[in-house]
Amino acid sequence: MNATRATLLAATCSLAFTGAMPCAAEQAPFFAGKTIQMVIGFDVGGGYDLYARTVARHWSRHIPGNPNFVPQNMPGAGTRTAANWLYNVAPKDGTAVGTIVQSAAVDQALAEPGIRYDAAKFNWIGNPIVDNLVTLSWSASGLATLDDVKSKGGLFCGSTGGGPTTVFPRVINQLLGTQIKVIAGYRGQSAVNIAMERNEVNCIGGTTWSSVKATMRPLLDERKINLLVQWGTAPDPEISAYAKRKVPLIQDYGQNDLDRGVLIFIGSGAAFGRPILAPPDMPPERVAILRQSFDRTMADPAFLAEAEKLNMDIKPLGGTEMQTIAVAVVQAPANELARAKELIGATK
Length: 348
What we know:
The protein has helices at residues 3-16, 47-59, 80-88, 104-109, 146-152, 164-176, 189-197, 209-215, 217-221, 237-243, 257-266, 284-298, 301-309, 319-330, 334-343; strands spanning 35-40, 68-73, 96-99, 123-127, 133-138, 156-158, 181-183, 203-208, 225-231, 276-278, 317-318.
């Protein structure tokens, strides 16, 4: 989303006042004096938490009525606690939004346990950062590439109990015959980061590049991290630039078209980045207000200035586009889903 698109949205809304069709912003009185609960499916201090809180600080200015945002961390089960709450319990009037793991739609398609939501029916509001993920290791491990992992072994990845921290190491094991161990039970991504610094684990199976830059900058600057592989539809040259070598995409390891397509599917969470979403069954005009105001926030100079200060990349994607992707992921062809389940070890 750029300033031009945000301007067009505002202009379209202004023109609507003169026609027969009222603009969504005319519903502004609903949000006046309201509080919007921003549920964060992660513990305090990680990349998702940083993005959600920063967006919330600026979003109110762009919602007619200027409601207050109150962030609330609700970690657990790889953010399924928060996702299930948003889907089944949260008010469906626009006063509750949240952020959950970017792989939520993929996790549902692969029938991961504990899911009580339909990702296609959430109202996806926007994503501030389209972002490749990386599998990384602690430099002291001596494991700098996936070839090292395959030949030497000894990789232990801390996991939050679901999502990329659990799924990506399983995929690598199935794909390359490695013996990566997943150590589950960490409360959130920040806890995994600390565990790696304490040498409890020596790997993070999957986290976004923006999160690494925003929350692990000293470790990057001290070259304490190795980037093993990246996940996304196209390579991010910045990742290879840091590594001072080509960091391959996971689909480069696919042996046929089916596997390469499935690996792109598994990594499709890159498009969701740090997703902001709302419960299902909301009034359409409220969804429109939240999406339009989110888009305007992404072009707000004050928001962009704070994001730069916090080392947060902003490469937004709108809610309508996210909705389309979520539906496509949930409705993926049966043969792709079957192979994906094989790769994550779900058929064993």
